[in-house]
């Protein structure tokens, strides 16, 4: 096992990439990882809004990479890293949305 704190390195050769950052940072992260995404990879997100996330991410998605916006139906009324907990996504639905 290994880990990295570099988004681009984490995305390199991955089959599935889940962008889990504040909505306003989605485009920056997409631009950073785009060169490392392999053809056939699936790119999704867990942002709370879709239109703004799509507008930020889609321009950076390389040809051959499948961007499928996602919206997990999980969480509480609180937000931010401190509001998370280990089983946040257990037995929860996730809606995948089409691109416009």
Task: Please characterize this protein's 3D structure.
The protein has a single domain, classed as 3-Layer(aba) Sandwich (Rossmann fold). Helix content is 20%, strand content 16%. It has three helices and five strands; from the N terminus they run αβαβαβββ. The strands form two sheets. A three-stranded parallel sheet has the order 1-2-3, with helices on one face. It has a two-stranded antiparallel sheet with strand order 4-5. β2, α3 and β3 form a beta-alpha-beta unit. The chain is globular and about 35 Å long.
Concise description?
This protein has 100 residues and is of the alpha/beta class. 20% of the residues lie in helices and 16% in strands. Helix 2 (26-33) links the parallel strand 1 and strand 2 (42-45).
List key phrases describing it.
3 helices, 5 strands, three-stranded parallel sheet, alpha/beta, single chain
Distance between the termini: 38 Å
Helix content: 10-25%
Strand content: 15-25%
Task: Report the strand count.
Answer: 5
Major β-sheet annotation:
3 strands, parallel
Low-confidence parts, pLDDT < 50 over ≥5 residues?
A: none
Mean pLDDT: 94
CATH overall fold name: Rossmann fold
CATH superfamily: NAD(P)-binding Rossmann-like Domain
Domain module tally: 1
Outline:
globular
Annotation field: number of helices: 3
**Major beta sheet, strand line-up:** 1-2-3
Class in CATH? Answer: Alpha Beta
Structural class: alpha/beta
What is the H-and-E element order?
A: HEHEHEEE
Radius of gyration: 14 Å
CATH architecture title? 3-Layer(aba) Sandwich
